[in-house]
Design goal:
The complex is a heterodimer of chains A (about 120) and B (about 110).
Chain A (H helix, E strand, L loop, with lengths): L3 E4 L2 E4 L5 E7 L6 E7 L6 E7 L5 E2 L8 E7 L2 E6 L8 E8 L8 E2 L3 E5 L1
Parallel strand pairs in A: 2-11
Antiparallel strand pairs in A: 1-3, 3-8, 4-5, 4-9, 5-6, 7-8, 9-10, 9-11
Chain B lengths: L8 E5 L4 E6 L7 E8 L6 E6 L4 E2 L4 E4 L5 E6 L8 E9 L15 E6 L1
Parallel strand pairs in B: 1-9
Antiparallel strand pairs in B: 2-7, 3-4, 3-8, 5-6, 6-7, 8-9
The chains are: A mainly beta (about 120), B mainly beta (about 110).
Chain lengths: ~120, ~110
């Protein structure tokens, strides 16, 4: 299957600072990438959808100015959590699809964010 | 996308076949059934998907009823590493588009017992 990789896998940042998470499709060009958030013992919640070269579409209740998503190339999308607070601590997961994957969506390993 | 119903948890003995059911009674004609699993603290892993025919790959088999209102994921010889939350998701699969993300329910927590 297609490979999606995230970096970093774990990050700790201080409250008020910003942190960037990268998502890369390693062996295919991803026309669409998705970002999810998962709190402990809960299911994945879709945050936003991004198409290469376009502005991301955010789900209801997700602050676009707080969670900046950039999908500047067909193999890289970034999620920047700005002015992070402890309640932003969560497991962030990206996924990607393309014609190459036949519309099947593949997920990255996830990134644990802890805001202290 | 149609909603799905799965049991919250299941146990299976190691080495036996694990059969995970999913109900999707409101599925539309152009919606596929997808299965993913999430091992603790990892991103979801794609397992298999199908439209109306039964499907098999190196990981599992997918059996879809003739009326498409339910399906069963079969792990033929479960191992301890198959312990995970399994998600059944129905969605439209368009070769040239379909940019919608997946909607995850609560899934089935499958526990493989030694």
């Amino acid at each position: 299957g297609a490979v999606v990789s995230q970096h970093p896998s774990r990050v700790i940042c201080k409250s008020g600072t910003s942190v960037k998470i990268e998502c890369r499709s390693l062996d295919f060009q991803a026309t669409t990438m998705f970002w999810y958030r998962q709190f402990p013992k809960q299911s994945l919640m879709l945050m936003a959808t991004s198409n290469e070269g376009s502005k991301a579409t955010y789900e209801q209740g997700v602050e676009k100015d707080k969670f900046l998503i950039n999908h500047a190339s067909l193999t890289l999308s970034t999620l920047t959590v700005t002015s992070a607070h402890p309640e932003d601590s969560s497991f962030y997961i990206c996924s990607a699809r393309s014609l190459f994957t036949g519309n099947t969506i593949y997920f990255g390993e996830g990134s644990w964010l802890t805001v202290v | 996308d149609a909603k799905t119903t799965q049991p919250p948890s299941m146990d299976c003995a190691e080495g036996r076949a694990a059969n995970l059911p999913c109900n999707h009674s409101t599925i539309s004609g152009n919606e596929y059934v997808y299965w993913y699993r999430q091992i603790h603290s990892q991103g979801p892993q794609y397992i298999i998907h199908g439209l109306k025919n039964n499907e098999t790959n190196e990981m599992a088999s997918l059996i879809i009823t003739e009326d498409r209102k339910s399906s069963t994921l079969i792990l033929p010889h479960a191992t301890l590493r198959d312990t995970a939350v399994y998600y059944c998701i129905v969605r439209v699969a368009l070769a040239g588009g379909g940019a919608d993300g997946l909607t995850f329910g609560k899934g089935t927590h499958l526990i493989i017992q030694p």
